[in-house]
Design brief:
With 178 residues, this protein is an alpha+beta fold. The protein is 26% helix and 44% strand. Strands 1, 2, 3, 4, 5, 6 and 7 form a seven-stranded mixed β-sheet that branches. The chain is elongated.
Length: 178
């Protein structure tokens, strides 16, 4: 393999690694996995969400408490568009959809469906398992929001009898290490 082929192969591997972090971000929020969520960011990453601006290590307890206060949550991010600046830095943008709900006084679940975009900066540094990509800066922008009322409860609906998980704490029995 010549040098340009090696560089192209490494870029493909790096793109996949960044994509895996984006999927882990969604999954660990939805399953309330605090350790997994922390592994998406460098602790000193600069975070800008509407309700928080600061370092990732300070953001994580805030966002996890926010997620724990929901009766359900569902995050889905698109594949990112990535531009590499060097072998250890990159920028990306991807679109996201979030649906969540809180238990209402009448026993129903209602919340919002939110669409937005994630503007991320990435750094490849030495981590727990050697060199790894993590978010070094993130700006989240909300594009739209729509009410999502009358959500299904946690018991199967006789007309659509699929199970509905209630995930209200980390360590759910259906959560698997991947």
């Amino acid at each position: 393999m010549d040098e340009s082929q090696k560089q192209a192969l490494q870029e493909l591997l790096d793109r996949q690694a960044i994509g895996d972090v984006i999927q882990r971000y969604c999954r660990t929020l939805d399953w309330l996995d605090e350790e997994g969520q922390a592994s998406c960011y460098w602790p000193d990453a600069h975070i800008e969400y509407g309700f928080f601006t600061g370092r990732a290590e300070d953001f994580l307890p805030v966002v996890m408490e926010t997620e724990r206060n929901l009766a359900r949550r569902w995050h889905m991010l698109s594949s990112p568009l990535i531009r590499f600046h060097s072998n250890t830095s990159a920028s990306s943008e991807c679109y996201g959809i979030f649906g969540g709900g809180r238990l209402q006084d009448d026993g129903t679940i209602a919340g919002d469906l939110i669409g937005g975009r994630y503007l991320d900066e990435w750094e490849k540094r030495v981590g727990v398992d050697g060199l790894e990509w993590r978010i070094s800066a993130r700006t989240y922008i909300v594009d739209w929001k729509s009410p999502l009322a009358d959500q299904p409860m946690f018991e199967p609906d006789p007309d659509f009898p699929l199970p509905t998980l209630r995930i209200d704490a980390g360590g759910h029995p259906r959560y698997r290490e991947l």
